[in-house]
Amino acid sequence: MAFLELKNVRIVGMSACVPKSIEYTKDNPYISADYDYEDFIEKTGIRSRRKDENLVTSDMWCAAAEKLIADLGWNKQEIDAVITCTQDPDYLAPCTACITQDRLGLSKECYAAEIPLGCSGWVYGLSYLSSLLSTGCMKKGLLLVGDARAIIPTSDPIVGFAATATAIEFEEGADGFKFHFGTDGSGWDAIYVPDGGTRNRLSKDSFSIEEVDGRKLCRLQSRMNGMDVFSFAISTAPKSMKKLAEHFNLNLEEMDYCVLHQANMQIDEIIRNKMKYPKEKVPMCLPDFGNTSSASIPLTIVSQLKGKVEEKLTKFLCCGFGIGLSWGSVAFETENIVLSELVEI
Amino acid sequence: MDIKEFISNFAEQFDDLDASVLTPETEFKTLEDWNSLVALSVIAMIDEEYDVTLKGNDITGAKTIEDLYNIVSERM
């Protein structure tokens, strides 16, 4: 069973960066051949997304990190580790974590590595970074997650650009994080990009246009089996959070906030109902920012809970789920944390 | 569970569809308002009402409403 508890670490701050540029769903002519934008908004809840095809992922998470480092008053030379997570790296190689060490001006005595996960990535990233810090040899670390432009411009009406920074410190006696993880690789093709890896190398055919679910896509663009992803999400996410609570004897009613991956409104509402949480305990940034992949949980906390949680003891339950198929739930407490103003570039 | 109730629940997933036009033999993918968003609502309805989570293949493999009803009945 993939349960994990990591003590002596705590979140000290979070920030998020999105493009200034807003794309409204009603202005997108590429929604689908099968339904119009009003149906789409009603079902998905996505009114607009932030998008700027000039931005690569590290542009956005470096902006988020700079803001958070300044707000925390951290000395960059003290940052021992940076874990990054993206599906849209700046280059196919090297990994963006190494580029980020240099862009942020971090010490060369810095552990840097990247996780290529999507919607579950923030929860997995927390476990990587917390594992590194929990022994106390390393004291401060940054978790940078998110996705900006893809290798081919997308007209996908679901996906929004965002990246976030989460700052974690070693603190003797801190309660830390409790996790549950799961993977079902048999659903690898529920969301995937067919070409451009080593299995299906880049070729002329990679650019040929296919019709997928009423949308025209080339083989370098992500496609999704919506029904399978939907089934997976509404059944797996609640089970994972309940398993976590049962394993660690957590009282689900005592949670102040349940922050879900912002998949779509229908999915998140079903999960919320299954978890029996009132709407005020399940903040959503989806209507304004769309599905922001690994950034969605921290972006929700930064954009929806700023001014509500910083000083007081707050109990969080979070669940990320999606491409892989991969999922992870985490429970943790925060107190006296910094939530930076949303960075817009 | 009976098929009348199932058909009524099925019809509710459309914006504006009178359940009386549907029969067990209705080939639901030929309905004018059927689309991939309605498919998700049908999966959600079946999950909530019958505690059965259908996958994409179940929907694509089914032709009539009765086909869906039978899949759900078998798994309840």
How does this model look, in words?
The complex is a heterodimer of chains A (345) and B (76). By secondary structure, chain A is α/β, with parallel strands linked by helices. Chain A has a single domain, classed as Peroxisomal Thiolase, Chain A, domain 1. Chain A contains eight helices and 18 strands. In chain A, strands 2, 5, 6, 7, 8, 17 and 18 form a seven-stranded mixed sheet that branches. In chain A, strands 1-9-16-15-14 form a five-stranded mixed sheet, sandwiched between helices. In chain A, helix 5 packs parallel to helix 6. The model of chain A has no long low-confidence stretch (mean pLDDT 96). The termini of chain B are close together. In chain B, 54% of the residues lie in helices and 0% in strands. The longest helix of chain B has 15 residues. With 76 residues, chain B is mainly alpha-helical. Chain B has one domain: Orthogonal Bundle (Non-ribosomal Peptide Synthetase Peptidyl Carrier Protein, Chain A). At the A-B interface, helix 1, helix 5 and helix 6 of A face helix 2 and helix 3 of B.
List keywords for this structure.
A: 345 residues; alpha/beta; Peroxisomal Thiolase, Chain A, domain 1; seven-stranded mixed beta sheet; five-stranded mixed beta sheet; 8 helices; 18 strands; B: 76 residues; mainly alpha; Non-ribosomal Peptide Synthetase Peptidyl Carrier Protein, Chain A; 4 helices; globular
CATH H level of chain B: which superfamily? ACP-like
CATH class of chain A: Alpha Beta
Strand content of chain B: under 5%
Number of helices of chain B: 4
Q: Which strand-content bin applies to the residues of chain A?
A: 25-35%
Radius of gyration of chain A: 19 Å
Tally of structural domains of chain A = 1
CATH topology of chain B: Non-ribosomal Peptide Synthetase Peptidyl Carrier Protein, Chain A
Structural class of chain A: alpha/beta
What is the CATH topology of chain A? Answer: Peroxisomal Thiolase, Chain A, domain 1
Topology pattern of chain B, helix = H, strand = E: HHHH
**Tally of extended strands of chain A?**
18
| Counted beta strands of chain B | 0
Largest interface: A-B, 19 and 17 residues
Taken together, the total number of domains of chain B comes to 1
CATH architecture name of chain B = Orthogonal Bundle
Please estimate the helix content of chain B: 40-55%
Provide the CATH top-level class of chain B: Mainly Alpha
- Terminus-to-terminus distance of chain A: 42 Å
Q: Low-confidence parts of chain B lasting 5 or more residues at pLDDT below 50?
A: none
Oligomeric composition of the shown chains: heterodimer
